[in-house]
Predict the structure.
Amino acid sequence: MAGQRLVDLDPAHRRRRLLSTIAVMIGTWVVLIGLYFALPFDASTGDEIVVRLVVATVALVLVVAYLVRRILNAELPYLRAVEAVSAIIPLFVVASAGLYLLLSHRGSASFSQPLTHSSALYFTVTVLSTVGFGDITPKTDAARMIVTGQMLIDLVLVGSVIRLVATAATRGMARHRPDAPPQE
C-alpha cells in the first residue's frame, strides 16, 4: 500500500521501520566516506578533472532520480525522503571534496595549502555549513569557480531539506485538526 503514514503502524513495526531507516542512513554515510578515503584522487591533466566532474555530476543526477522514484513508490514516503536526503548530502560532500583534492593535486597553488583527503573533506564541510574559517581558501580562478558552484548547490540542498521539514510539519499540523481529511 503506497503512501502509508508512519503513525498508522503498530509500535513494533514503526520501531523496526525507524531503526531500518537509521541503519540505512548510517550505512550510507559509512560507505560513502569510506570510499572517499579509499579512492585515489590523482589527475594528470585538466581534461581528466573535467571528465571526472562530468561523471560525478551525471552520477549524482542519476542517484537523485533513482531516490525520487523510490520515494514516489514507497510504502512510507517520508522515511524514504529522509533516507534520500541522508544519501544526497554525503554524496555531494564527498564528490566536492574529491574535486577539491583533484584540483589540489593538479596544481598546488589552487588552495592556500596542499589538500589531503581529510583537509579536502574538512574544507567542503566548512563551505557547506557556511562557517568558512578561512584557514583553507581557494587561490586560483578555477578553484574559486568550483567553490562558488558548491556554494550555489549548497543553497539548493539546504532549501530542499527545509522544504521537506516544512511540508512534514504542515501535514502534521493538519492531521491534528478535527476537520482535516486523512493525510498520506
Remarks:
- The domain at 6-175 is CATH 1.10.287 (Helix Hairpins).
- The chain has five helices and no strands.
- The longest helix spans residues 141-175.
- The mean pLDDT is 82.
